[in-house]
Amino acid sequence: MTHSTYPIGTPGTKWNNNDKGQWFKSQSIKRSYQNDVVSLINELKNSLTVEQYGELNYAAGTYPLYVLKTPQLDKNKPTILITGGVHGYETSGVHGALRFAKTSALQYSEQFNIIVAPCISPWGYETINRWNPAAIDPNRSFYENSPAPESAAIMAYVKSLDLELIAHIDLHETTDSDNSEFRPALAAREGTTNTNWNIPDGFYLVADTNKPEPEFQKVIIKDVAKVTHIAPSDENNQLIGVPQEQFGVINYAARDLGLCMGFTDAPYVTTTEVYPDSPTATDEECILAQVAVIKSALKYIRENA
C-alpha cells in the first residue's frame, strides 16, 4: 500500500537542510524525560550504580544520558547489555528496561554484570519520535563516526568499560504509527515512494542474520507467549516484509544496517518488537513482555552458554 504524499519536501527529491528544519519545527514536546524516566532512574540509586555516560545538547534542550549497573562489575562474570529507547517513541522499551532494573537486576548480579541504558534517545521520547532533531534515525546509525550523537555516546561508553559482552538485548516496539507517520516521513526524506508494510498483530523478535542463535530466540518467544500474544506471519510468511525464520522471529543484517543490536561482538543478541496498539494489549502487558524477554535470555545463557 502506498501512502499519500508527506507534507514536507518535494516528492521524488531528498530533503535538504531547509526541509529538515521544517520537519524539526513541526515537532512538539508531549511528555517529560525528566519526570517519566530520570526520576525513576534516581529512585534506584540505593540499589544500582547510576552513571551519566553523556549529554545531548540540542536547540530543544539538554538531555543527560544515564546507565544503570549492577554493583561492582567483575571481568570474570558474563556481561549483559540492555538498551531501550533507541527509538524514543517506543515506550515499553524504555519502561521495560527500567522495570527490569528495578525489580530483577540485582537477582541476577551474582551470575552476571548487567548494564541497562533505558533511554538512548530522550528527545525522541519527549516528542514521541523515531528520529533525532536532525532527522537521523539512531537505529540506523550504530557505526564508526556515527552522525547520531545518541548512538555514538552509548557505543563509546560500552567500549570504555572494556568488558566482553555475552548478550545484548535491544527493546523496541512496532506501532501503527510506523505506517501512518514514520515510513511516509522516511520516504519523503529519501525522495522515494513509500510502500507501507503489514503491521504484525503481536510480539516478535529480530535476530542478527550473522549470529541468529535460533534456539535462543525460540526459547524467548515461548516465554513471552505467556505474557502477550506472538504475531503470526502474513500471507507471504513474512513479518514487516521480511521472511519469517521461525514462529515470531525474523533476521536482519544488524551491523550492515547500523542497528543497535549489531554494534557489539556479543554472541547472543536480539531486538524485541512489542505491539502496543493491539486492542488486547495494555501498557503494563507491553512492559511485562519486555521484562520477560530479558529474564528468558538470562535463564537461557545461564543454562546453555
UniProtKB/TrEMBL annotation:
Protein name (Swiss-Prot/TrEMBL): Peptidase
GO molecular function terms listed in the Swiss-Prot or TrEMBL record: metallocarboxypeptidase activity; zinc ion binding
InterPro entries: Peptidase_M14
Biological process, per Gene Ontology: proteolysis
Record organism: Pseudoalteromonas carrageenovora IAM 12662
Family to which the UniProt record says this protein belongs: Belongs to the peptidase M14 family.
Residue stretches making up the Peptidase M14 domain: 29-305
SUPFAM superfamilies cross-referenced by the UniProt entry: Zn-dependent exopeptidases
